[in-house]
Amino acid sequence: MALLEKAAGQGHAYAMYALGSLHDSRKEYEQGVLWYSKGAEAWLPKAMFAVGVCLDKGEGVAAADYPAAAGWYRRAADAGHGDAAHNLCSLYTVGRGWAWRIMPATFATS
Amino acid sequence: MPSRQERRKAERDAAKRAPRAGAAGAAGAAGAAGAAGAAGAAAALANLNVNQLGDWTTQTEDSRELLRSLGVEVVKRRAAMGDGEAQYTQGCWLVRKAHGNAGVLGAGGRSPMANVGLALSTYTFRVAHRPRGVVRSLEDDDMFYLRVPTLGGGGRGTS
After folding, report:
1. Is B124 in CB contact (< 8 Å) with chain A?
2. Residue A7 backbone zone (phi > 0: left; psi -120 to 50: alpha; other: beta)
3. pLDDT tens across B9-62, in order?
4. Which of A31-40, A58-67, B50-59, B75-84 has the highest mean pLDDT?
5. A71 Cβ contact list (under 8 Å, min separation 6)
6. How high is the ipTM of this complex?
7. C-alpha distance from A62 to closest chain B C-alpha (Å)
8. In chain A, what residues touch B78 (CB-CB under 8 Å)?
9. How far is CA B90 from CA A4, B17, B61, in A?
10. What is the b/e burial string over B111-135, where b = at least 16 CB atoms within 10 angstroms of the residue's CB?
């Protein structure tokens, strides 16, 4: 893990994602989200998607934040991530009681 | 700092020198073993400056790729020199080793939320209702409809 952290420190986006994935597998969700976020900031689509899932499920964050999750799904989907498009679509259709309120805002900021 | 073209030229030159070094070794008193050693060392030196994608500024997702193309020793040396790509490769390798190749990395991580997945029909799937009385462009329209291939007939169905 130390080597991965060194690589991530040098801006290696896949290393950031790998660290997030590693923490995730150990159920250290807060650390996982932190590394996923760094990967997402480095424009790695799968990291953007992972941040979206964490926000969607409320893992590693204070509470589920569907609008923010939709935003990350949207960015990942724009970068060609199919699963992100799937989850974004799920959010809009299944909705969980919020979709109609945030949809115009999401489209406006995309 | 040398430009990318200069680095590539240096790499090409190094690669060209490698067989010559091997030939020179073969001609010498060292014999065939010495020739192979010289060629191997020159090839390793050439490999130190280039990854399989052309340069060391490229990030590779598949960490095994670097191990396959360069070998463990070169990767280790590169990682010790502080190269991020090699550190990533070696780091992933060690994690896999520790976890018994259980898929913690790579294919692991987040997956789509299957529990809220959609059952897509073979026809146009209506994702959202179009507000009435609002004129939308074709692009806007596409945002509201998910097009999936049809089994027969083809084309976009009516909703």
Report:
1. no
2. alpha
3. 777 776 666 554 444 444 444 444 455 555 555 444 444 444 444 444 556 677
4. A31-40
5. A52, A106, A109
6. 0.76
7. 19
8. none
9. 8, 29, 13
10. ebbeebeeeeeeebbeebeeeeeee
Residue B19 lies inside a defined structural domain of this protein:
yes
Please report the pLDDT score of residue A35 as a whole number: 92
The reply to whether residue B90 touches residue A56, judged by beta carbons under 8 angstroms, is no
Of B84, B104, B116, the CB nearest to A7: B84
Domain boundaries, chain A: 2-109
In this structure, is residue B152 part of a structural domain? Answer: no
Residue entry with tokens 């994690």:
B95
Which residues have C-beta within 8 Å of that of residue A98, sequence separation ≥ 6? Answer: A66, A67
| pTM of this structure | 0.56
Q: How far apart are CA B128 and CA A94, in angstroms?
A: 11
- Nearest CA-CA distance, residue B113 and chain A, Å: 7
Question: Does the distance separating the beta carbons of B108 and A86 come in below 8 Å?
Answer: no
When mean pLDDT is compared across A30-39, A87-96, B109-118, the lowest value belongs to: B109-118
CATH among 2.60.120.620, 1.25.40.10, 1.20.1300.10, 2.60.40.1120 for A2-109: 1.25.40.10
Are B113 and A57 within 8 A, CB to CB?
Answer: yes
- Contact between residue B31 and residue B38 where contact means Cβ atoms under 8 Å apart: no
> Residue B25 falls within a domain, yes or no?
yes
What confidence category does residue A46 fall into, taking pLDDT thresholds of 50, 70 and 90?
confident
